[in-house]
User: Which sequence fits this backbone?
């Protein structure tokens, strides 16, 4: 099951449920577009592109777990939420998924609504809520930031995997024999392991960016009152 | 399913399918896939019909079966799963999947195999006949919100930046005496990933500022959009495949 876990391919979930989630994803993404448009300034536009490219590249790393048939990959929702905010972040992940489905056949086109709901919406939303919470609770040190990124990334992967369990419960095409708890447990366990990898990558990346260019980290913008004027956009070479 | 994510899938050619505007191809591919998914899984003949459609388009696009089938191997992980579905009796995950009903398992396996394969083949055909640039032009013409096409444009552009930076950093590591064999590479990779991101961003930012100073306003120049938008005739030509697929799907639903 986990082979298909994150990128649900055609035929795993039945048509009506896929259609419902497609409508849901469309409504939510419209909201993200409206909010994201306001966020997308000169600094965020290239960052959003890079975050999407980074997620695209990172999703190619498949972690084989237990056997060859079981694997999963990184999602990048937490990284996106941290660096470009929840609205643009969800859009970044959605763009990655659309391009993958259209030209790489990774995840069925008809299942796009399900995949976007799980990874772009659920994953990013869970990550951003955790980030917002943890940044307020934890000390404002590099370690605090690293822990925030790690925990948010790890848990957001697990939340996204449970989205699949919900969808399978609603419209799985093969009967599970009522043993949905087993599926939920397996999914959570496997994705906890993936989440650790995801957490480490997210934490390292965010920490490096925050040290050198704190102005680029969206999640830190609202917290720190800008004492000095922001670093000019043109600062490139160091 | 990670193999070959760089756009190595595009096949340079001048076939009728290549010449079709991208928005037409995207729409046709999406409608085709939805028709396939909507088909009841016991309507075996319908999937034969879809396969014939795919083969016809592939022949028109001059994409050989060998190329198509070898690229379709990204599907292998879940083909393995589908084949295992009706047979494996032990192991808790398979029990979870409810193989008390082996007929249901068989149908489920067939369902995943047929619909998944047809979906992958359809998107491979789109990839083989459309460059990534055209793909974004197509999405733009289909009225995809500009924020999304903008992110997609930068994503595809920065992928090369990212890969280039990664290669440079790797060469730099090797020339300083690092020994990047697979497992040994992991540590360097982990340590370098943040730096890679930052370096790629700073290059990307310069690319973006260069674009801005040349008049970029968030959308590619009008010349991109203006020329070559699909004519009614092209829409009609491309509509044949999805209309045939939809007819098959409706017939199979009515018959079952």
Assistant:
């Amino acid at each position: 099951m986990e082979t298909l876990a994150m990128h649900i391919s055609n035929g795993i979930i039945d048509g009506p449920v896929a259609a419902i989630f497609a409508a849901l994803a469309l409504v939510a993404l419209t909201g993200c577009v409206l909010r994201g448009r306001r966020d997308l300034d000169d600094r965020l536009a290239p960052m959003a592109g890079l975050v999407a490219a980074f997620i695209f590249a990172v999703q190619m790393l498949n972690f084989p777990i237990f056997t060859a048939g079981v694997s999963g990959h990184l999602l990048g929702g937490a990284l996106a939420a941290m660096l470009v905010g929840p609205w643009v972040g969800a859009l970044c992940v959605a763009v990655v998924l659309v391009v993958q489905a259209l030209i790489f056949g990774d995840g069925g086109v008809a299942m796009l609504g399900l995949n976007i709901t799980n990874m772009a919406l659920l994953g990013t939303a869970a990550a951003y809520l955790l980030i917002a919470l943890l940044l307020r609770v934890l000390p404002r040190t590099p370690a605090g930031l690293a822990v925030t990124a790690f925990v948010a990334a790890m848990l957001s992967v697990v939340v996204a995997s449970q989205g699949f369990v919900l969808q399978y419960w609603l419209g799985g095409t093969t009967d599970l024999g009522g043993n949905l708890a087993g599926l939920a447990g397996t999914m959570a366990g496997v994705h906890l392991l993936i989440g650790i990898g995801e957490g480490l990558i997210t934490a390292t990346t965010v920490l490096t960016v925050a040290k050198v260019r704190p102005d680029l980290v969206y999640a830190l913008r609202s917290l720190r009152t800008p004492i000095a004027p922001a670093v000019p956009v043109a600062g490139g070479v160091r | 399913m990670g193999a070959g994510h760089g756009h190595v899938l595009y096949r340079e050619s001048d076939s009728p399918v290549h010449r079709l505007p991208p928005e037409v191809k995207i729409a046709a591919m999406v409608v085709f896939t939805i028709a396939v998914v909507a088909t009841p899984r016991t309507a075996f003949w319908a999937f034969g019909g879809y396969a014939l459609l795919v083969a016809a388009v592939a022949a028109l696009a001059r994409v050989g079966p060998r190329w198509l089938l070898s690229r379709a191997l990204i599907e292998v992980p879940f083909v393995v799963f589908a084949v295992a579905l009706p047979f494996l009796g032990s192991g808790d995950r398979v029990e979870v999947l409810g193989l008390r009903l082996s007929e249901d398992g068989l149908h489920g396996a067939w369902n995943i195999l047929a619909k998944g394969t047809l979906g992958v083949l359809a998107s491979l055909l789109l990839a083989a006949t459309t460059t990534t640039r055209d793909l974004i032009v197509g999405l733009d013409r289909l009225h995809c919100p500009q924020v999304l096409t903008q992110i997609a444009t930068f994503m595809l552009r920065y992928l090369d930046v990212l890969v280039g930076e990664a290669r440079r950093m790797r060469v730099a590591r090797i020339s300083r005496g690092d020994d990047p064999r697979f497992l040994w590479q992991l540590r360097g990779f982990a340590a370098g990933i943040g730096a890679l991101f930052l370096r790629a961003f700073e290059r990307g930012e310069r690319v973006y500022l260069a674009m801005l100073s040349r008049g970029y306003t968030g959308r590619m120049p009008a010349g991109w959009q203006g020329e070559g938008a699909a004519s009614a005739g092209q829409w009609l030509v491309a509509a044949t495949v999805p209309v045939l697929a939809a007819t098959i799907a409706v017939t199979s639903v009515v018959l079952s």
